[in-house]
Design brief:
Its main location: endoplasmic reticulum. InterPro entries: EF-hand-dom_pair (IPR011992), EF_Hand_1_Ca_BS (IPR018247), EF_hand_dom (IPR002048), FKBP-like_isomerase (IPR051989), PPIase_dom_sf (IPR046357), PPIase_FKBP_dom (IPR001179). By secondary structure, this protein is α+β, with helices and mostly antiparallel strands. It has ten helices and 28 strands. The strands form six sheets. Strands 1, 2, 3, 4, 5 and 6 form a six-stranded antiparallel sheet that branches. Strands 7, 8, 9, 10, 11 and 12 form a six-stranded antiparallel sheet that branches. A hairpin with a 4-residue loop joins strand 8 and strand 9. The N terminus and C terminus are likely disordered. The chain binds 2-acetamido-2-deoxy-beta-D-glucopyranose (7 copies) and calcium ion (2 copies). The site of one 2-acetamido-2-deoxy-beta-D-glucopyranose (NAG) has 3 residues, from loops.
Length: about 575
């Protein structure tokens, strides 16, 4: 009964028409319009919906489904239609058009239909099939696209909450609804009766980003009633679905794609201040925000409610340098309302984070000795003059400063605010030749504002090597006595006993004291410079020589104050 080669039938048809001899034995079928894609042909027992025009030989119309505005629905090939139609509809595809010539014995026979179809009438039908299904049908699910950019680890299960886009058509392609027309996803629970049965089943197993075609027979859709004016009774439905995301209200956060650094001495805990970069996307890969676009890390305390709960939890236990993906369900993110213009309501968030550094406000300087010379008796202390090499970097490896950049080694007096507090602390206790790696938290470095090359709140790493160490003098002194001060200082200084001490005499006197280890100049300053400064200070009237009175006066004036004095 199913004539798969239309060509044969055209010939057959022409044969009959041209001869016009005697009554037809069987239905004549002309498949004059067959769609290119014909996934299914009507078989006996299928339920079909079709439109038709019926006319008599003289072209007189006796009936039309169009006049009633609704397609005819019924089972095919089981004797519920006139035999001619029953036979003529078999093998049809949806959207196929056929002309049928039905001889009287396969139509209304010698009786006809009073007032409509005369006796022994040959019937001419023009049909178009709009729907076909069978009560044994199941859902037809075709995966059209599977995402490659997102992992398909988790798929839709009963009681999940899903967000998806869809286009809905009838089987013949008639559009009835689309989420796009509302420009937001359709959001609902699966398997909880909110959806038609076919959709509840058809979504199962989908990954975010996956596209499916789901064909749903009417008994898993709107059945005999249809839906409003858009879905006729007994309609099969075709949904093209794009799953955007899914989660379960019972979900916590999920960690994935963890990449740990080689060394992780410490893991972040509540109260730590973390600096990190992130890319934020929705589960289907749609980007919504990134720290990189602002060119600065995102900085925050963790575990204290400053950020969304999912992030607060997701950053717990991170190592410096670690990368991880944190997947956050909406109840731990931005909830049902989302964030205007960037995050839809009930959206699952996917953050790829890269931890740059973290510290705790209670942190002190972390010192690790990397090399200790065999003799390390004399160590640097506050007031000492030191020279050292250093490299300074951020914890992501960015080099910021290095003493190797210039020919001059760094030289400072410890404990005099010459360098940031943390570095000063890190240098104390070193002996010449010793090497250290020192981590300085921002409150002992450049703080919340940062400095050139140093981002706000950055932890700094210093690699240090002490090269030179000189005993210092108390703050404010340019020269100190290592033995008792001479009883009569002026007499001691006035080497030629002419009762005045010019610069040369003063200089000779002090240098002699130093070379004979009775006294010491402040380290790190040329002795001549210190001598000049001290002389200028003593020579009150600036006549180029110190007198006994000038020395006495000066000593009395500043008896209690220690200031660039002998
Ligand atoms: C039936 O006739 C109407 C107009 O008379 C036409 O629009 C329609 O396409 C016809 N249907 C078929 C299946 O030929
Ligand atoms: C998928 O899940 C398994 C087990 O749940 C996990 O071991 C694996 O790392 C996950 N794959 C990805 C790409 O996240
Ligand atoms: C729905 O139709 C629109 C317009 O044709 C198309 O852009 C979109 O990709 C379709 N969606 C799905 C899920 O097929
Ligand atoms: C980001 O920082 C880099 C390096 O400091 C700089 O070259 C770039 O211009 C900055 N971009 C923006 C958008 O600020
Ligand atoms: C964020 O995206 C940019 C650009 O694709 C990439 O270079 C960077 O590594 C990503 N960062 C993270 C933490 O995944
Ligand atoms: C420390 O110095 C003393 C003398 O100054 C010396 O006797 C001793 O051996 C040194 N100690 C070490 C461990 O080098
Ligand atoms: C600083 O870095 C340079 C180049 O890597 C290295 O040669 C030098 O030893 C480092 N200095 C210190 C004090 O670690
Ligand atoms: Ca003199
Ligand atoms: Ca003088």
């Amino acid at each position: 009964m199913i004539f798969r080669v239309p060509f044969v039938w055209v010939q057959f048809f022409i044969l009959y028409v041209s001869c016009d001899s005697g009554p037809l034995e069987d239905v004549v079928i002309d498949r004059y319009d067959i769609p290119k894609i014909c996934p299914r042909e009507v078989q006996m027992g299928d339920f079909v919906r079709y439109h038709y025009n019926g006319s008599l030989k003289d072209g007189q119309k006796f009936d039309s489904s169009y006049d009633r505005g609704i397609a005819v629905a019924g089972f095919a090939g089981v004797g519920r239609l006139i035999t001619g139609l029953d036979r003529g509809i078999l093998g049809m595809c949806v959207n196929e058009r056929r002309k049928l010539i039905v001889p009287p014995h396969l139509g209304y026979g010698s009786i006809g239909v009073p007032g409509m179809i005369p006796a022994d009438a040959t019937l001419y039908f023009d049909l178009i099939l709009v729907d076909v299904w069978n009560k044994n049908d199941q859902l037809q699910i075709t995966t059209l696209e599977k995402p490659s950019h997102v992992t398909c680890n988790r798929t839709v299960q009963d009681s999940d909450f899903v967000r998806y886009h869809y286009n809905g058509t009838l089987l013949d392609g008639t559009f009835f609804d689309s989420s796009y027309s509302r420009s937001s996803t359709y959001d609902t629970y699966v398997g909880s009766g909110w959806l038609i049965k076919g959709m509840d089943q058809g979504l199962l197993g989908m990954c975010p980003g996956e596209k499916r075609k789901i064909i749903i027979p009417p008994f898993l859709a709107y059945g005999e009633k249809g839906y409003g004016t858009v879905i006729p009774p007994q309609s099969s439905l075709v949904f093209h679905v794009l799953l955007i995301d899914l989660h379960n209200p019972k979900d916590g956060i999920t960690l994935q794609n963890q990449v740990l650094p080689d060394i992780c001495k410490r893991k972040a805990v509540t109260g730590d201040y973390v600096r990190y970069h992130y890319n934020g996307t929705l589960m289907d890969g749609l980007f919504f925000d990134s720290s990189y676009s602002r060119n600065t890390t995102y900085n925050t305390y963790i575990g204290m409610g400053y950020i969304i709960p999912g992030m607060d939890a997701g950053l717990q236990g991170v190592c410096i340098g670690e990368k991880r993906r944190i997947i956050i369900p909406p109840h731990l993110g931005y909830g049902e309302s989302g964030v205007a213009n960037s995050i839809p309501g009930s959206a699952v968030l996917v953050f790829d984070v890269h931890i740059i550094d973290f510290h705790n406000p209670k942190d002190s300087v972390d010192i690790e000795v990397t090399h200790k010379p065999d003799t390390c008796n004399i160590t640097a202390k506050k007031g000492d003059f030191i020279k050292y090499h250093y490299n300074c970097s951020l914890l992501d490896g960015t080099q910021i400063f290095s003493s190797h950049d210039s020919d001059n080694m760094q030289q400072i007096t410890l404990g005099r605010n010459n360098v940031i507090d943390g570095l000063d602390t890190g240098l104390q206790g070193m002996c010449v030749g010793e090497k250290r790696t020192v981590h300085v938290p921002p409150h002992l470095a450049h703080g919340q504002s940062g400095a050139r090359g140093v981002p706000p709140s950055a932890v700094l790493r210093f690699d240090l090597e002490l090269t030179h160490l000189e005993d210092g003098v108390p703050e404010g002194y340019l020269f100190i006595w290592l033995e008792d001060t001479p009883e009569n200082l002026f007499e001691a200084m006035d080497l030629d006993k002419n009762l005045e001490v010019p610069l040369e005499e003063f200089s000779t006197f002090l240098k002699t004291q130093a070379s004979e280890k009775r006294g010491r100049f402040v380290p790190g300053v040329e002795p001549d410079q210190s001598i000049e400064d001290m002389f200028g200070n003593q020579d009150r009237n600036k006549d180029g020589k110190i007198t006994a009175d000038e020395l006495k006066l000066k000593n009395e004036e500043e008896a209690d104050i220690v200031h660039e004095e002998l």
